[in-house]
Write a structure and sequence with these properties.
The protein has seven domains: about 25-90, membrane protein fhac (Ubiquitin-like (UB roll)), CATH 3.10.20; about 90-165, Ubiquitin-like (UB roll); about 170-255, Roll (Ubiquitin-like (UB roll)); about 265-340, membrane protein fhac (Ubiquitin-like (UB roll), Roll); about 345-415, Ubiquitin-like (UB roll) (Roll); about 420-490; about 495-755, membrane protein fhac: a member of the omp85/tpsb transporter family (Porin), CATH 2.40.160. The strands form eight sheets. The chain has a 16-stranded antiparallel beta sheet, with no helix packed on it. The protein is about 15% helix and about 45% strand. It is elongated. A hairpin with an 8-residue loop joins β29 (about 665-675) and β30 (about 685-695).
């Protein structure tokens, strides 16, 4: 058994007392060596034949032989006029094994340690490898792990090395404390950082595991938090992590000096570039006199001004904010200086670490190329684009000096990550009932950047199966192309008195005009079937039974100026869609729809980004052409997600039996206030209140059927809770209709999946 705490010291050369002193070394004899050549050992000797006997040189030779790591023991003795070097070789490593490890895999350990098969075994190397493995355990959050090297002796002076591992429990953060905070509570500051205290609901997260790198990131998050709230003098005194005596948890303590809150006394934009007046750029700064100092707003102002001057043709302009605090009055005078920067060009874009992804997939995400004027904002945009791809772990783009002072090389460092995903989930939806979904996707198919997926949703009241492929840079150009094959069925006879199924395909082609404006064209060919009318269905519904074919060309023009496409807090989203059915098929119509949403952040009033006010509206109109009479499957429907408080399709034209018929003219509007709930943000739970309004009309009349059809608005108000789960977003809403009409079908409580606001 090897003890990692054992230490060894090279013995001093022992010269026989009876051996006469002085003289010259006649010869050197090596004994005990088996694998190592005699000449190799002699080459390490600092004393050679012909040299005088010198105890100091003999001792140095002894230490040199030990330092090679090749020998377990070494002795040098004098026999007459000869030196005899007696060695015992260290064994060779036959194999290296790991036993008991689960948190850190063999694949992670093998390249990290120095001990390899056929290497010379030394106790020092085994001790060093033990420390290396413990370091890997620490990175994995297991600070209580133990590693014990065991040596198995084999014939021919060989050994096998077994690292016996005990993972131990993950070392979690049991407590996070802040000292010196007077203006913000412990809970507010805990929410501002990425590390979290241990809690039962974090079993799918690693944020409660102690990680020194994350703590460093937390320090930066604290600074940004205080600067965002106006505390320009904020200083982080210390950030300490203390391991509990049982080594099973950490205590994190941040000592802060908040300082005073500052307000803006003045904001100016000063330009030293000819024909570029600063006054024209001032509206781009989202701060004014009297506002609370905000580091994030200053950064946003720098980016906005930089982008504007670049678009105006000033490629080398730089924006430098000058912050002049007045500690006595707790105010800050803010000046944005626009200056002519040095003329630096991109010599080359180097890419490393992409073992699977093609270079062209990476280069097209970087909006700056060889020969372009170097622009730090565009370099950062490229880095952000690579992060958004989600193909790599923490991609970095850094400028390094080129072959001349006016040239830089953009060094792009990447580490590939798994881009395939298998998903399996389940739940409940008001429209579909109990459901299960399964999916397989690959976001970077064969390293080409092509997105391929297949998914299936199986529910009590319907099924959806879809196979899709999307190429975001078709033909190497700024084109998004793809296709879908799908099959759907809807057997929700609770809301409708008939069943519906369809099978079809579509081909898509889109174009991005810029980062905000895009347009997509889609051709769809779908076979549709209305069948299985329930007992008691109206004459109107039974007359609609049967199959039809839709051959449709669509286009959607989108203007997206939101700050975040997944969780927006400010900005505008507008889309305009036109559908033309008539390129073959039985359906013949022109359909137009427009939707808009506007987000207003309320953080400055409530101190939390989760407070957001949203206004949204939509309108749609369908016009049959070529003598075609629109069918149920062509119409718009109102209720459910587009008008809460009413069943899906439950508001709008009905016949006197109560069957929902849809309509050709639709309008909706909604006002939503989103706010945080008094629970940990890690739970992914937020609340909202809303008021919805909508109307639907324009149903075809048929002989012998009485129809209730009015354009009058329906109105509902309510509250809801959104839960962001690993299986998707779940919305729970309770709504009360306050304006409704005869035959409208009410639905106060609703559960829906996958709809973000």
């Amino acid at each position: 058994m090897f003890s990692p705490s054992a230490s060894y010291a090279a013995p001093k050369a022992a010269l026989a007392a009876a051996t006469p002193q002085g003289g010259v070394v006649a010869a050197i004899t090596v004994v005990g060596n088996e694998r190592i050549e005699t000449g190799t050992i002699e080459s390490y000797m600092l004393i050679q034949p012909g040299d005088p006997f010198d105890p100091t040189e003999i001792d140095r030779s002894l230490k040199t032989l030990y330092a090679t790591g090749l020998f377990k023991t070494v002795s040098i003795t004098r026999q007459g006029n000869d030196l005899v070097v007696s060695v015992q070789e260290n064994p060779l490593v036959s194999a290296v094994y790991f036993d008991g490890n689960k948190a850190v895999t063999d694949k992670q350990m093998k390249p990290a340690i120095s001990m390899k098969p056929d290497a010379v075994f030394t106790q020092a190397a085994a001790a060093a490898d033990r420390s290396t493995i413990l370091g890997l355990y620490a990175k994995a959050g297991h600070y209580d792990a133990t590693v014990t090297p065991e040596i198995i002796q084999l014939p021919d002076n060989r050994v096998s090395v077994v690292y016996k591992c005990v993972d131990g429990p993950k070392t979690l953060i049991s407590r996070i404390n802040f000292i010196g905070n007077a203006h913000f509570s412990q809970a507010s500051l805990r929410d501002a950082i990425s590390s979290r205290q241990d809690a039962w609901f974090r079993f799918l997260s690693s944020s409660d595991e102690y990680n020194p790198e994350r703590v460093k990131y937390d320090e930066e998050l604290l600074r940004k938090f205080y600067f965002h709230h106006g505390y320009a003098d904020f200083a982080l005194k210390s950030a300490d992590a203390e391991l509990a005596p049982d080594r099973k948890s950490f205590f994190l303590t941040f000592v802060v000096d908040e300082g005073a809150q500052y307000h803006i006394s003045s904001v100016k934009v000063v330009s030293s570039i000819h024909n570029l007046p600063g006054d024209e750029l001032r509206p781009l700064v989202p701060l004014g006199k009297g506002d609370i100092f905000d580091g994030d707003a200053i950064e946003a102002g720098v980016k906005a001004i930089s982008k504007r001057v670049e678009n105006m043709g000033f490629a080398f302009a730089q924006v430098e904010p000058d912050v002049k605090p007045d500690p006595k009055n707790h105010t800050i005078a803010l000046t944005f200086n626009v200056i002519e920067g040095p003329r630096v060009y991109v010599e080359r874009v180097s890419i490393s670490g992409n073992t699977r992804t093609e270079d062209q997939v990476i280069r097209r995400e970087i909006p700056i190329a060889e020969g372009d004027a170097f622009n730090e904002d565009e370099m950062q945009t490229g880095q952000d684009n690579l992060k958004n791809l989600d193909y790599f772990k923490d991609p970095k783009i850094q400028p390094v000096p080129g072959s001349a002072p006016d040239k830089v090389i953009l060094k792009t460092t990447l580490e590939e990550k798994a881009t395939g995903q298998f998903s399996l989930g389940g739940g409940y939806s008001t429209d579909l009932g109990a459901l299960a979904n399964i999916g397989l996707s690959q976001d970077n198919f064969l390293g080409t950047g092509i997105d391929a997926s297949i998914s299936a949703l199986l529910a009590q009241k319907g099924t959806q199966i879809n196979l899709g492929v999307t190429n975001p840079y078709f033909l190497g150009r700024n084109l998004i192309a793809g296709f879908d094959l799908f099959r759907t069925s809807n057997t929700n006879t609770t809301n409708f008195s008939y069943n519906e199924r369809s099978i079809g395909a579509d081909v898509r082609l889109g174009f991005r005009y810029n980062q905000h404006v895009s347009q997509a064209f889609t051709y769809s060919l779908i076979s549709r079937d209305v069948y299985g009318a329930v007992t008691g269905a109206s004459l109107y519904v039974t007359s609609e039974l049967g199959a039809s074919t839709l051959s449709q060309l669509s286009q959607t023009l989108t203007f997206d100026y939101r700050d975040d496409r997944l969780a927006p807090t400010s900005g505008t989203l507008i889309s305009l869609t036109t559908d033309f059915a008539g390129l073959g098929g039985s359906a013949k119509y022109l359909r137009v729809s427009a939707n808009a949403a506007y987000y207003i952040p309320l953080e400055r009033f409530f101190g939390d980004k989760a407070w957001v006010l949203k206004f949204s509206t939509g309108v749609g109109y369908l016009e049959p052409i070529f003598g075609y009479k629109s069918r149920l499957v062509d119409n718009f429907f109102l209720g459910g997600d587009n008008l809460r408080g009413f069943q899906t399709g439950g508001a709008g034209p009905h016949d006197t039996v109560g069957d929902s018929l849809g309509g050709r003219f639709l309008y909706t509007g909604s006002t939503e206030l989103h706010f945080p709930l008094p629970v940990s943000p890690d739970l992914g739970v937020s609340g909202y209140t809303f008021a919805d309004v909508g109307g639907l009309s324009g149903v075809n009349a048929i002989s012998g059927v009485s129809i209730v059809d009015t354009t009058a608005p329906r109105v509902a108000i309510g509250v809801g809770v959104s839960v962001d789960t690993p299986f998707g977003l779940i919305n729970l809403t309770f709504a009360e209709p306050i304006v409704k009409y005869k035959y409208d079908q009410v639905e106060q409580f609703r559960v829906s999946f996958g709809t973000r606001f």
